[in-house]
Design a protein that fits this description.
DNA-binding, homodimer, two-stranded antiparallel ribbon, mainly alpha, elongated, 2 strands, 9 helices
DNA sequence: TCATAGTGTCTATTAAGTAGACAGTACCCA
DNA sequence: TGGGTACTGTCTACTTAATAGACACTATGA
């Protein structure tokens, strides 16, 4: 009974509270945000906040988790985002990550703020790594022998570094341009990426 | 009984429907937007839409009116927006308009779309003119004699032209830069602007 | 011609959101 | 030191905005 059913109405309210939190973190930093700020900004009653969340930390956790879950799911579901897939060896599905981040750039911009969402700087790269580990299989050029776990970590964090740069330069490169760059760099040491669905 | 009381809850819902309309106009044009699109996007029930609005045209009207009312009110209330007022002859209050537009750029960008909010292209400049007529009194350089009604219209539409340019270039100039330009141009034929509060 | 998709209206139901009081903590500053 | 202000988290009782679903109707197009 502690977790009740989810309804569209509840989700909507939670989402609005989350959006308020994003705005307020950008405005004054997470530390300074109060529950009162959040309900003022989102125009809910203070009581309403406590129906959904115990305090701002739970709200923050929920926001982070749902965005990162969304990221994982975006990779899992068939490519709706990137339409014209470049005819390259590298699996287009990897670029769902890029599209998802771009679509939700309002959220991911949080990574450029000092006093920001708790755990964002740790969980975001961990999620990238998790996706790389669970969904992709790589092949080195000429089948050069390497520890594949290390190779996966290496490419995941390399990709993360590029993402950070793209985000913090305000997405000045277009999605297409950015994807081009990622492909070029991947090709320096990667022969192919295979997408492995579930399991 | 046709117009019931306004409550925060009602306003919030209406606002969310309005925001959905803005997004959808940008996405597919006003003509193509359906009530179903609007409630899908804003995650309300279709019935809920009809509680608040008769059809999408009433919603559009409400959106436009509230934004333009907001513009008028922004000028009327003491300058909270522009902090450091340049020590110029020209009344800083005029620049509340610029700040308001910038803060609500998501809405005002609609003016750059072809199939957009009905009446936007007529009512927006009319509102600028109304503000100029009701809130400001101008002085020509050296008290050059002109028909003051004409002079007001002339400066209002001149300002409107600059605003259009600023908006449709994606607000690349900062608020401060843009204000600078407006001041420079005003000075070519204007000795002072006086703000006249109510009446 | 039938099928599909959207419209606008209505009804009954309910649970999300509201107002308000409460005791408790933390902080400032006079 | 003590009083003032501001926010917190919990609770209660109320109401009403939001919901699901049915309805007849129109327009479109395959």
């Amino acid at each position: 009974m502690v977790e009740k059913t989810i309804t569209p109405r509840k989700n909507r309210t939670k989402e609005h509270l989350q959006l308020a939190l994003i705005d307020l973190i950008k405005e004054k930093g997470f530390q300074a945000v109060t529950v009162k700020d959040i309900v003022n900004h989102s125009k809910y009653n203070r009581s309403t906040f406590y129906i959904h969340y115990h305090d701002k930390f739970y709200l923050a956790e929920d926001l982070l988790d749902s965005m990162l879950n969304g990221l994982e799911e975006a990779v899992a579901k068939p490519y709706e985002r990137i339409k014209k897939v470049n005819t390259l060896k590298l699996n287009a599905r990897s670029f769902e990550i890029i599209s998802y981040i771009y679509e939700n750039r309002n959220f991911f911009e949080l990574i450029t703020y000092q006093d920001t969402l708790p755990e964002l700087h740790t969980k975001f790269p961990q999620t990238i790594l998790k996706i790389y580990q669970e969904k992709f299989r790589f092949k080195t050029i000429n089948n050069m022998p390497v520890d594949m776990d290390f190779f996966t970590r290496y490419t995941a964090y390399g990709f993360y570094g590029l993402l950070l740069h793209w985000i913090s330069t305000g997405f000045t490169a277009s999605q297409e341009e950015f994807i081009e760059e990622v492909i070029k760099l991947s090709r320096t040491h990667m022969a192919a990426v295979k997408y492995v669905g579930e399991k």
